[in-house]
Amino acid sequence: MARQDDPAQIRARFHDVVNMSAGEIEKWLETDESQAVGFKRDGGESIGHASGRQIVHILRTPPEELDGGDYAHMRKVAGFVRRHLAQGPHQEHRIPGSRWRYSLMNWGHDPLKD
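^ DNA-binding protein, sequence as received from the core. Prediction below:
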């Protein structure tokens, strides 16, 4: 059985929940909708928006070049997306323009792609 801290397992969980490409995330992060959602510390960039930028970095980095901070963020992303999906509306009520969807997209997951 693989350890929970095994890099291959962390990458697998991350890639299970991130269903947007680096290019899709970058394009999304440039939109007003992306920048309008999420918790903002001190009125600056939201945590989810900053996460999206880090996800793009991770997706574009070869696995052998990822560091401990990257793996910590991958664990955070997998946990956030799974919790957010569990708290969200049922499939038939998922509205394309909802803040719920937009927040998830900042974290690299488009629920309408499921």
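The chain has six helices and no strands.
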